[in-house]
Amino acid sequence: MQFESLDIEVRHARSDDAQAIGAVFDAAVQAGWTYLGELAKKPMFVSHDWDQLVADHAPPNVLLVAADKTGRVLGFTAAHPEDGEMFLLFVHPASAGRGVGRMLLSAAHEGLRAAGCKQAFLFVHEQNRRALAVYKAAGYRPDGSIRQSDFRGTAIREVRLVKEL
């Protein structure tokens, strides 16, 4: 699966992308989850966790990265074709607003459709206004479901969004 635009390539993640994926996640959480205050400022996962994420999301699972011409990872997404869940979507703040998230989302949707999924769904923090706007623009709509999750001991409400593929 290859998407190229604006000197950005979307491709399947490789094992050597793991630590860059982790760095994107940490930077995106620190910049985007400010509603969590100090809780969002410390890395949530250790190096091995990112290696495991890449290993666990080998095809047929979907783990894609957006990389620039130098190979630097700008963002990533993960999806589970067995149920249509969009599991992760993060873009480094330095690359925000360049269409990287839209490219990743489009590529993940293509991967889900290729696996036979008719619908995609995801959960997003209720307070994450930027993510909610991105998903709304991509055609996702709330289905009324709410999930409570835990972020370092803090309860977070997440809304479930769905999109027909």
Fourth-tier CATH superfamily name: Gcn5-related N-acetyltransferase (GNAT)
Please give the alpha-carbon distance between the first and last residues.
17 Å
Described by the principal axes of the CA atoms, the overall outline is globular
| Overall pLDDT metric | 92
Number of domains: 1
Q: Over the alpha carbons, how many angstroms does the gyration radius reach? A: 15 Å
| Poorly predicted sequence stretches spanning 5 or more consecutive residues | none
SSE arrangement, N to C: EEHHEEEHEHEE
Organism: Dictyobacter alpinus
GO molecular function, one term: acyltransferase activity, transferring groups other than amino-acyl groups
Domain N-acetyltransferase: 8-165
Protein name: N-acetyltransferase domain-containing protein
Give the gist of this structure.
This protein is α+β, with helices and mostly antiparallel strands and 165 residues long. It has four helices and eight strands, in the order ββααβββαβαββ.
Question: Would you give an account of this structure?
Answer:
It is a single chain. With about 160 residues, this protein is an alpha+beta fold. The protein has one domain (about 5-120): Aminopeptidase, CATH 3.40.630.30. Helices cover about 30% and strands about 35% of the residues. The protein contains 4 helices and 8 strands. It has helices at about 20-30, 45-55, 100-115, 130-135, and strands at about 5, 10, 60-70, 75-80, 85-90, 120-125, 140-150, 155-165. The strands form 2 sheets. It has a 5-stranded antiparallel sheet with strand order 1-2-3-4-5, sandwiched between helices. Strands 6-8-7 form a 3-stranded antiparallel sheet. β3 (about 60-70) and β4 form a beta hairpin. α1 (about 20-30) packs across α2. The protein is globular and about 35 Å long. The protein starts with a strand and ends with a strand. The mean pLDDT is about 90.
